[in-house]
UniProtKB/TrEMBL annotation:
This is Thioredoxin-disulfide reductase. Keywords: Flavoprotein, Oxidoreductase. SUPFAM superfamilies: FAD/NAD(P)-binding domain (SSF51905). It holds the Pfam family Pyr_redox_2. It comes from Psychrilyobacter piezotolerans. The lineage of its organism: Bacteria, Fusobacteriati, Fusobacteriota, Fusobacteriia, Fusobacteriales. Signal peptide: none annotated.
C-alpha cells in the first residue's frame, strides 16, 4: 500500500532532525530519509560540543544528534535508510525514488542534505579526523589550547579562523599553496599583525601522522617551489590541523532542477526557505531548504536546527492551505 506523507525530509543532520521534530509535533505524517545508518551528518565527527545552548557538558556530536532523533521519534517521526537517486519536486505530490526501488511520496519536502568538508587529500587525514584533524575552528578551537596548530587554506574563512584560533593555540601556522592569500585585504592585515600567526607559503600537505593514544602528532609539508619536505611535530604534545579549504554541498541531485550558487549551495527564499526553480527563478511551493546545503552566513548546529524548525513550520502551513 502506497503511503502519502505530509512531509518528507531528506537528510538526518541537525537541520533534518529539527525539521522532523517540528513536523511530527505539528501532527504531520513525517518521514526522514538518511543514506547513512547513523544520524548526525558532519557534526557526528566532532568529539565534543560545548557551544550548543542547553547541550550536555562534554557531549559528542553523535550523542547530541541521537537525542535529537529520540525527540523526533517520540513525536511520531519515522526514519528510513535509503539513498535517493531521483526526485520529482515540481508535481503537487512530490516523489523521491531510492536506490532500493521504493518511491516515497509527500505533500511537502525539506532538503536537508548538508555539506561535506573539502579534504586536503593527504594520507592520515581521514584516520585522524576528530582526533586532531578538524574542519571547524569555531567548533573545536577550545580543544587545541596551548598546542601548535596548522590551518590549511588561504581564503577568508581560513584566515578568519586562524585569527580566532590564536585565542587558544600556542602558535598558529597558516599553510597556503600559493605565495599570497586570497582573503580580503582587511582580514589579511589583521592576520599579519597577529604575532601568534606564522605563514608557510607555496606549500601543500604531504601526510598527517598520529599516535593511537595522543592522536595527531605531526604534519609533513612540501614546498611546491623547492621540493623541500619538512615534518613538524608538537614535541611531547599533539598538534591540531584545521583543513579550511571550503565545503562541498551535497546538492548534485538538484543542480539541474533548483537554483544553486557558484559553489553548488542551494538558494532559498530567506523568509520562507522555499527552494527556487532553476527554470524560472521562482519559489517552488512545498519544497524547502534547511541547513548546510543552502547558501547562508553561518554554518553551525544551532543555525541548521533553526532552519529545520522554520522549514517545518512553513511546510505545515503549506500543507494545511493546499491539501485540507
Amino acid at each position: 500500500m502506497e503511503i502519502l506523507y505530509d512531509l518528507i525530509i531528506l537528510g538526518a543532520g541537525p537541520a533534518g532532525l529539527s525539521a522532523g521534530l517540528y513536523g511530527a509535533r505539528g501532527m504531520m505524517k513525517t518521514l526522514i530519509i538518511e543514506k547513512n545508518m547513523l544520524v548526525g551528518g558532519q557534526i557526528s565527527t566532532t568529539s565534543e560540543i560545548e557551544n550548543y545552548p542547553g547541550g550536555m557538558i562534554s557531549e559528542s556530536g553523535t550523542e547530541l544528534t541521537m537525542r535529537m532523533k529520540n525527540q523526533a521519534v517520540n513525536f511520531g517521526c519515522e526514519f528510513k535508510t535509503d539513498t535517493i537517486i531521483e526526485v520529482d519536486l515540481e508535481s503537487k505530490i512530490k516523489t523521491l525514488t531510492g536506490e532500493s526501488g521504493i518511491e516515497y511520496k509527500a505533500k511537502s519536502v525539506i532538503l536537508a542534505t548538508g555539506a561535506s568538508p573539502r579534504l586536503a587529500g593527504a594520507p592520515g587525514e581521514k584516520e585522524y579526523t576528530g582526533r586532531g584533524v578538524s574542519y571547524c575552528a569555531t567548533c573545536d578551537g577550545f580543544f587545541v589550547r596551548d598546542l601548535e596548530v596548522f590551518v590549511i587554506g588561504g581564503g577568508d574563512t581560513a584566515v578568519e579562523e586562524a585569527i580566532f584560533l590564536t585565542k587558544f593555540a600556542k602558535k598558529v601556522n597558516v599553510v597556503h599553496r600559493r605565495d599570497k592569500l586570497r582573503a580580503a585585504k582587511s582580514i589579511q592585515e589583521k592576520a599579519f599583525k597577529n604575532e601568534k600567526i606564522n605563514f608557510i607559503w607555496d606549500t601543500v600537505v604531504e601526510e598527517m601522522k598520529g599516535d593511537p593514544i595522543k592522536g595527531l602528532v605531526s604534519i609533513v609539508l612540501k614546498n611546491k617551489i623547492t621540493g623541500e619536505v619538512t615534518e613538524y611535530n608538537g614535541g611531547d604534545k599533539p598538534i591540531g590541523v584545521f583543513v579550511l579549504v571550503g565545503n562541498v554541498p551535497n546538492t548534485e541531485l538538484f543542480k539541474d532542477k533548483l537554483v544553486v550558487n557558484s559553489g553548488g549551495f542551494l538558494i532559498a527564499d530567506e523568509k520562507t526557505l522555499n527552494a527556487e526553480l532553476s527554470s524560472t527563478g521562482e519559489n517552488l511551493e512545498g519544497v524547502y531548504v534547511a541547513g548546510d546545503c543552502r547558501e547562508k552566513l553561518l554554518y553551525q548546529v544551532i543555525t541548521a536546527s533553526a532552519d529545520g524548525a522554520v522549514a517545518a513550520v512553513v511546510s505545515e502551513k503549506y500543507v494545511e492551505e493546499n491539501f485540507n
